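Morning, I've got a small favour to ask if you have a moment. It would help a lot if you went through both lines with me. I owe you a coffee for this, so here goes:
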Amino acid sequence: MSEPLLSIRGLQASYGRAQALFDISLDVARGEVVTLLGRNGMGRSTTVKCLFGLLPSKAGSISFAGQRIEHLPSYKVARRGLGLVPEGRQIFADLSVEENLLATARGAESAGASGSAWTLRRVYDFFPRLAERKRNMGSQLSGGEQQMLAISRALMTNPSLLVLDEATEGLAPVARADIWRALAELKREGLSLIVIDKNIQSLLALADRHYVIEKGRIAWNGDSAQLRADPALVHRYLGV
């Protein structure tokens, strides 16, 4: 078996004196889509924060493309080829769509998994609505447009692994469908993805494998067929 793109082993983390992660171990292969599932407060977003250097880990290791990254600052993590679409979108409200995109852009030499660099032209082809709104301020966009912008901003870093934290939360059904179609296209292009979301049916259709996080530990992992065949497990850990 080839070396995974991302490998996390025995990850532990705390907020002050309150331990949030006790033993997180997971892998993501090149071109694979993996989900982090679980109820709110179980450790999914905390795992992402540790991955991107936004929260220091107490123990364990994080290896990306064969190199340890758990002690790197966030900007160096991003330079290694990890892209984040954060919860709540966090676009720059006082910048235009195009300024948001250029703020994080890396050059063509940083082309990601597909081998074709993400440029303004490619982003506008991928999300034509952003081309129509490129002169509008971030604050003038709808929720769905803001999410397209958050995804595109991350793609402009030309990542090898894109992490999306609640990418469809709070969106209208039509906007959610647009986002799921975009993620499916990114998968077809061979981009590795980690997705956190509450829409289990859409995740089952998109993802290769799933990790359920319960109280800061991996409680279960398996593929979509296994998860689909075990509704009791879904109800136990996800409450749906």
Q: What stands out?
A: The chain has a mean pLDDT of 93. The CA atoms of residues 204 and 228 lie 7 Å apart. Residues 173-188 form the longest helix (16 residues). The first strand starts at residue 6 and ends at 15.
